């Protein structure tokens, strides 16, 4: 099948039709579906408490409310972070990122804390782990609270421990496109008695969800059916779906996870290891091809901590020149699943920029907004797809480069 008839989805969740049907049955007939997922996450992350929510954004908003006070957030990240801030009603203070590690720039983080931030959010962008030791030291010295957003960190680890359990609060997401998916849903990890007590003091009543929400099941089934490369061109041709677009979504009242999502996420956990191995293998293949090609207008961000193991939800690629940015913006690149990352820093997000505090310049965030692209590395790629992605990344001259 010629590649032009294939369109590579940016991400892949380990879904099966049988798994979706099994999740519907479990949500309908098994009253322990939600509690079973909670118990698995408690054991997996070794935390004090797990609160299951209707989305990762909801979980993050709850963590912000529990931590309280102004919060330091990365100037470059998913716009859902802005949604969470608005839902929690907290004042955000922006700090800059290091474009080569995607982690906090230490000096900028210290200045955000000196400006009055009482908590710090770190985000493991695209499954590249933040150097937790250095960040935790800065946060602890300031007497602040650490929130760890591991929504994109499926399959990644530090010192062999999965991401999400290092801060006082941790965030997981089970939305479509994540390495562990329930079609929707999220989890708030409370990593100490103090964090659990502060959360309990909020005295929240989360809105209940139907066990099997019809629209959620239908959307998840559609994702499973149409996200394979042979069919993905169909939904990708429908602009109203906004596939690959980064959008701000207004906050909504916090809710509980649906039993269907909990059952599906539990099944997805069983497939997480194999899918993560595929992503790492394909990422390493592309990294090796780029290194051997002599192309010098690309850089691949990597963890600063040598004990980190990336999960590569997608492979981040930093285009260093206008020519590289132009190459990665062509229709052929989009057809291969190569997409620009978040289009602007949060300081320039309409409707949010007037609520953020910017204590210094953010050159790293601006570099990422103009030059960061991401490439697919999931298990749906075959050898031809990897070659096509590498060709797009490296330019036409490398189209015949072998795997």
Characteristic terms for this protein:
403 residues, eight-stranded mixed sheet, four-stranded antiparallel sheet, 15 strands, single chain
Any overview of this molecule?
The chain has 403 residues and is an alpha/beta fold. The chain has one domain (3-398): Type I PLP-dependent aspartate aminotransferase-like (Major domain) (Aspartate Aminotransferase, domain 2, 3-Layer(aba) Sandwich). The chain contains 14 helices and 15 strands. The protein has helices spanning 17-29, 33-45, 56-67, 80-88, 106-114, 132-141, 193-200, 214-226, 233-236, 259-293, 322-327, 331-335, 363-371, 383-394, and strands at residues 49-53, 71-74, 92-95, 119-123, 145-149, 157-158, 161-162, 169-173, 186-190, 298-299, 308-309, 315-319, 339-340, 357-358, 372-375. The chain has an eight-stranded mixed sheet, with helices on both faces. It has a four-stranded antiparallel sheet with strand order 10-12-15-13. Residues 397-403 have low confidence and may be disordered.
